[in-house]
Design goal:
The chain is of the alpha/beta class. It has 3 domains: 102 residues, no CATH class; 129 residues, no CATH class; 74 residues, Orthogonal Bundle (Arc Repressor Mutant, subunit A), CATH 1.10.10.10. 46% of the residues lie in helices and 14% in strands. It has 13 helices and 10 strands. Strand 3 and strand 4 form a beta hairpin. Helix 4 crosses helix 7, helix 10 packs across helix 11 and helix 11 crosses helix 12. The protein is globular and about 65 Å long. The chain starts with a strand and ends in a 9-residue tail after the last helix.
Length: 332
């Protein structure tokens, strides 16, 4: 049985839809912990999963993740909202500070909710103490440093490509096109956004707008906050648009970039470009442009994703580094 979150928009809400341009570190932590708790979608994160298991196995950090993080961020129908504060949109430091500063009364309420739905750990009441929250924030930071940060370039490239795609969709089809194209799990039937979800639920935006958060580690099913009184958001999976788990070693492949044409193609995709746009920019045929973008992609310089009948190309961190003023120009 498919359960649905129905997000109700007013005309004012439609003017206040925003798509995050950067990953939310605390939502990525929460979603990555969910990847450790299920085999669903594991193939899509196989490299990360193997490395993470190896990094955590037999370590104090691994034991702390099992004892403290997994029980309070379970893959379940309820997650305590205070562990994914909106402040994390401004970075991990701001998000962790917001966790530490959360009012004890709110934490007590959310721990009771967690206990009702999936069972809270016996140590959870200690989170009402500020020192315990500081310890939890330190553990979240350590986990992020150990298993998220090594993949940060990949995550940033994926979210940047998603942002370019959503921007183009909005320009081409307006907000209706944006809301209709987010994910196979999301359907736009104006004025209601229907989202495959863990429970049947209605969320009335009531003029507050909606923050859309593309996520690297979120798999198939979007996530929202449990408390309707908080600023509404929807974390959605970037289906099929993750950067590969490993990029080819650049040294050999970069030799294929020799020549003015491919250097120009790389500049062309700096703000995102389709294969047809690259062809027009270079003054070549579409098949020739496709050949050049294939070489750039194989060299780890661009990231390509198909949407409908077009392929959008954006820079990887390595490609962006080559275009920085301090970088040497491509040989001719």
């Amino acid at each position: 049985m498919v359960r649905v979150l129905r997000i109700h928009f007013t005309s004012r809400d439609l003017a206040r839809v925003r798509v995050s341009r950067a990953p939310d570190p605390l939502w990525e932590i929460a979603s990555s912990l969910h990847r450790l708790q299920t085999t669903r979608g594991r193939w899509a994160y196989a490299g990360w999963y193997r490395e993470t298991r190896s990094t955590l196995a037999g370590t104090e950090l691994g034991a702390a993740v099992s004892r403290f993080l997994l029980p309070v961020l379970p893959r379940a129908r309820y997650l305590p909202d205070f562990l994914t504060p909106q402040d994390a949109a401004d970075g991990l430091d701001r998000g962790l500070a917001a966790i530490v500063d959360t009012a004890p009364e709110r934490i007590a309420h959310e721990i009771r909710m967690l206990n009702r739905y999936s069972g809270a750990p016996d140590w959870a009441p200690r989170l009402l103490e500020r020192e315990t929250r500081k310890e939890l924030a330190g553990l979240l930071r350590a986990y992020h440093h150990a298993v998220i940060a090594p993949y940060e370039d990949r995550i940033l490239a994926t979210i940047a490509a998603e942002g370019a795609l959503r921007g183009r969709e909005t320009l081409a089809s307006g907000l209706d096109g944006l809301l209709a194209s987010l994910s196979p799990a999301i359907r736009w039937r104006p004025p209601v956004l229907h989202v495959d979800y863990v429970v049947d639920r209605d969320l009335h935006l009531a003029g507050r707008g909606l923050r859309l958060i593309p996520s690297y580690f979120c798999w198939q099913q979007p996530i929202s906050l449990a408390d309707d009184t908080l600023q509404p958001l929807l974390v959605y999976p970037v289906h099929g648009r993750r950067a590969p788990d490993s990029a080819p070693a650049p040294d050999a492949s970069l030799a294929a970039l020799l020549g003015r044409t491919r250097a120009a193609a790389l500049r062309c995709v700096a703000l995102g470009a389709t294969t047809s746009e690259v062809a027009r920019f270079l003054g070549v045929s579409v098949p020739t442009a496709s050949h050049h973008t294939t070489v750039l992609r194989d060299a780890g310089l661009i990231f390509s994703q198909r949407h409908r009948n077009t392929v959008l190309h954006t820079l990887t961190p390595l490609g962006a580094a080559l275009l920085r003023p301090s970088s040497r120009p491509a040989p001719e």
